[in-house]
Amino acid sequence: MADPRSGKIGLLRDLNLNIILNIIAKKGPLSRVEVVRQSGLPQATVSRITNEFLEAGLILKERFDESSGGRPPRLLQLNPTAGYVVGVKLDKDSVLVAICDLSCTIIHSSTVSLESNTPFERTLSTVVEAIQHCLLQAHMTVHDILGVGVGLSGRIDAERGICHSSPSFPWRNVALAAKIEEVLHIPVRIDNNINTLAVAEQHFGLGQASPNFLLLVIGRDIGLSVVLANEIYHGHHGSAGEYGHVIIDRSSTAPHCRCGQRGCLEAIVSSYDQTHVAPRQTATNANADKDPAVLRTKVASENEQADTALTYIGTMLGITLANLINIFDPNRVFMMGHIAQNIHVAEAMRNTMSSMLFDQEISSNILSIVEGDSIREEQWARGAASLVLNELFQPPLYEHGPQTMIVVEDLLVSASSRISSNKARKGLP
Questions:
Q1: Which of these ranges, 22-36, 75-89, 268-282, 301-315, has the smallest mean pLDDT?
Q2: Quick one: 318 exposed, middle or buried, by C-beta within 10 A (0-12, 13-18, 19+)?
Q3: Distance in angstroms (rounded) separating the CA atoms of residues 67 and 231
């Protein structure tokens, strides 16, 4: 965790701004009276700050509230277009950039290609150019942006903005956040891409009602994010959540993993998927025009092998998932990825997990398998953008190492400046 702030001028104002904006953003539309009640702040403070927000266009007056008598109060609601953030998904062969509003809705995105094994300086230039290009397409500049979030695979020191290592890139121990900040002159945050996805779900998706949850992404790569007491758990070295590299088979025949070990969960899932499951679809398509009777026999045999493999994958996932639940005791577990949606995998996983839970009162319904196709690329970039919004909406009680915190005051100044600029362009006073 970051260090507590101390002796900072305006800390009380920062806190009050944050409290009121959070209430309106998460509970709105609601009246000033309700903001006073939920915040516990004096009415005068709430009135002064909400007036500032209204003047800056940070919040809007919505419909009138129902009233039993007298003039009905206007309801207040966050204006999602009062500020913007940028999310970047950095992959080995592409840079995806998304511009999001304050509700984390993507308003524009673009992708540029990236050559494999690109040196760091060239990668940095490509990322900056991709951000600038996306802003240009959206008729924006960096002055319209509160900050940039970057998600990539690997061991990331999110607090100091350092990428220690990534399977997608050859470089090591680079101050990625600081290097981007030097060029763009706006705050930059980075984290492991699974963590960025969890932050987005925490504030805008599945995890909004769960202060403690696990998010697992199951595919050829396997990732985990642990959210405890509404905070991402990174671990001491920034490598918490390497769920895919839990070793479950120490035999000499266990498949090799890209990490250098043998018998990792990720290697086993990938190996069984490629050996027994993926070939089934390929073979079925290749034999589509052959004799139906021969094809039925061949497909039946292949299906039996594939189903056995899928059941084995589900069993292995169930064992490791039960161990995670026994260790962390989360409210919910969310699982994404096409493999987890297979009926054989899901059934074996739930049955194995339930049988191995220490607390047998925990229902198998703790696990939610998110349906749908593979995670869209934009979701990863949206997750990265959530890093900035997460910091904006959290209480400004902590310093993030050498980084400057992104606080509501920044948003207020940015929104006010945009209104003044718009008025100037239109010749208004």
A1: 268-282
A2: buried
A3: 39
* Each residue's pLDDT tens digit, 362-414: 887 899 999 875 567 788 999 999 999 998 888 776 555 545 567 788 888 87
Pairing of strands 162-165, 155-157: antiparallel
Domain end call among 28, 56, 78:
78
C-alpha to C-alpha distances, 158 to 155, 215, 233, 338, nearest whole angstrom: 9, 18, 11, 28
Q: Is the peptide bond preceding residue 29 cis, with omega within 30 degrees of 0?
A: yes
Q: Is there a single domain that holds both residue 73 and residue 183?
A: no
Looking at the chain, the number of H-run helices and the number of E-run strands are 12, 16
Residues in the chain: 429
Mean pLDDT of the chain: 85
CATH code of 307's domain: 3.30.420.40
Environment class of residue 363 by beta-carbon count within 10 Å: exposed (0-12), middle (13-18) or buried (19+)?
A: exposed
Question: What is the C-alpha separation between 380 and 286, in angstroms, rounded?
Answer: 34
Residue 227 DSSP one-character state: E
What is the token pair recorded at 330?
């989360």
Span 122-135, pLDDT tens digits:
999 999 999 999 99
Do 189 and 207 meet the contact criterion of CB atoms below 8 Å apart? Answer: no
